[in-house]
Amino acid sequence: MTADIPVQAVPPPDRTPFTRGGNLSDDADTRDRLTRIEGKIDLIGMQHTASETVSRDHEERIRAIERWKYALPVSALGALVAAATALIAAFRGGAA
Fold first, then answer.
1. Please, what is the end-to-end C-alpha distance for the chain in angstroms?
2. Where do the structural domains in the chain lie, given as residue ranges?
3. Minimal CB count within 10 Å: which of 4, 13, 37, 42?
4. Where are the alpha helices (DSSP H) in the chain?
5. Which residues have C-beta within 8 Å of that of residue 25, sequence separation ≥ 6?
């Protein structure tokens, strides 16, 4: 013979992510959550745009430095040639 074992009901938790006080969330709660999510997505989009702007500016600055990097030795060489020419002309007694 088997004895009947009494089964006790487990009470539901007070709140889960999808319930409010044991009842399903209403539409207003869902809209509030979606509004917060949309706001966060908009913020991420703005941050991404700002990051792209900073990155583009950084790239332009690097390119400008690279142009100077290659132009500076050529300018220095030109200045040395001009100085040497002026010294040679001065020692030869060139007309000024």
1. 132
2. 27-89
3. 4
4. 27-91
5. 18, 19
